[in-house]
Write a structure and sequence with these properties.
By secondary structure, the chain is of the alpha/beta class. Helices cover about 45% and strands about 15% of the residues.
Length: about 220
């Protein structure tokens, strides 16, 4: 049975890091709409040009763009055995569209990573990313400032345009207004779980794996 996982949580909760590690451990693709959009912006594609100004303001890209990107990605062969979605859905409309995509697939497991707002602001305002490959310099400020090169590719480390303090707070307001209702949309399902994201990353990873295993027990074969 395919393992189809959604990682929910506000910006800075660490869901991208956890999604990447979990996907690698299970041999399934991590599908990050944020990464795909940033690559499109970097490449100057039509979607990238459309999304660039929206991302810089900390706003959400239009539902139709995001739904189209995800529908095309889930149709690829490597997603048939399962996937980890990071950054999608972000609105209830996107969640409804995803449910339609899942009609002939195995059930979704949904995990929310919970972190208080003050910690999110601290993490995001000190986060650096590689300007070449887009990888995050993990640690949220602990020792990160002393590094000038990406550990993955050697590219320079910079602050993301949407990690400016003012934009961060706007992103969190948008999350509360538009994305937080996803928790209400999903929390009544037997495959929904929450994980405390204030813990050390390895503890979060362990709790995440346990939550997914628990949710999977309720999925009909």
């Amino acid at each position: 049975m395919a393992l189809n996982l959604i990682m929910l949580g506000p910006p800075g909760a660490g869901k991208g890091t956890q999604a990447e590690q979990f996907a690698a451990s299970r041999g399934i693709p991590k599908i990050s709409t944020g990464d795909m959009l940033r690559q499109a912006v970097h490449d100057g594609t039509s979607i990238g040009l459309r999304a660039k100004a929206t991302i810089a303001r900390g706003e959400l890209v239009e539902d139709d763009v995001m739904i189209g990107i995800v529908r095309d990605r889930l149709a690829q062969a490597d997603a048939r055995a399962g996937f980890v979605l990071d950054g999608f859905p972000r609105t209830v409309a996107q969640a409804g569209a995803l449910d339609e995509m899942m009609v002939l697939r195995d059930s979704l497991i949904i995990v929310e990573i919970v972190v208080e707002e003050a910690e999110l602001v601290r993490r995001l305002s000190t986060r650096l990313v590689c300007d070449e490959c887009g990888a995050t310099a993990h640690g949220f400020g602990v020792g990160v400032e002393r590094r000038t090169a990406c550990r993955n590719c050697g590219g320079g480390l910079v602050q993301r345009s949407d990690d400016d303090d003012k934009v961060v707070r706007e992103r969190l307001r948008i999350y509360q207004r538009q994305t937080k209702p996803l928790v209400e949309y999903y929390q009544g399902r037997p495959t929904f779980r929450s994980v405390d994201g204030l813990q050390a990353p390895d503890r979060v990873a362990a709790d995440l794996a346990a939550a997914i295993a628990s949710a999977g027990e309720g999925v009909a074969p």
